[in-house]
Structure formats: C-alpha cells, structure tokens
Amino acid sequence: MERPSLEINLPDTHEEGKLYVVDSLNNLNKLNVCPDGSQHALDEEENTGDTGENTAGSNIRNQCLFFVTFILTLIVSLALVSFVIFLIIQTRNKMDQITSRLLSEKKNIEELKKMNNMILKHLNQSVIKR
C-alpha cells in the first residue's frame, strides 16, 4: 500500500504556507505570553502596521505614564495619611482639654457640695437655737 504524499509542490502556495505557519506561531506565542486585555492591544498594533520603533516608543510612553500615575498615587496617599495623623493628634489634644475641664469641674462640684453641707449644718443649728 502506498501512502499519498502530504506535500504538494506548488511553487506559489509554498511561500504562502511558510508565511501562514510563521503567522500562526506568532499568534500562538501572543496567546501564551499576553493576557486577554493586552492581546487586543497587540492585535490593534498589528492591524495598524506599527513598526518596532513605534512599539518601543509606545512601551516607553506607557511605562512613563505608569510611573507618573504611581508617583501621583503615592503623593495623594501620603497626603491622606498625613491628614489622618493630624486629625488624630488634634482629637487627642481636644480630649485632653475636655478631660482636664471635667476634672476641674469635678473639684468645683465637690467644693460646692462641702459648702452646701456646711450651710445646711449652720441653718440646722440656727433653727434649733430658736
């Protein structure tokens, strides 16, 4: 039994077949390397015909944008943390003031109670003498 040959030796289709295989390998590589979101961006670049230099420039631009966004995020986070620390310190100071006022008022109330008791005693003694 003879097996039919799998190769077809047509000169025009041979070159197209090579290109098709290379393109298929590139697509397979993109699927393995790139996550779903970046695959769409790569397909768009491929469709627009970007060169390697433009892709490198775009990559650098994306990295710069990422770092600028990262630094801005850090600055905003630092500002928020500083503001929260400032609020905590202010709240502690206010609580200390309120505590000291309460203690002084407590002393004043105790003194008023003593004076009230003394006055009641004096009145009771004066009523008894009459």
TrEMBL record:
Region spans: Disordered: 37-57
InterPro entries registered for this protein in UniProt: DUF4577
Keywords, alphabetical: Membrane, Transmembrane, Transmembrane helix
Pfam family, one: DUF4577
Domain of life: Eukaryota
Spans traversing the lipid bilayer: 65-89
UniProt cross-references to PANTHER family, sorted A to Z: LEUCINE-RICH SINGLE-PASS MEMBRANE PROTEIN 1
Protein name per its UniProtKB record: LSME1 protein
Lineage: Eukaryota, Metazoa, Chordata, Craniata, Vertebrata
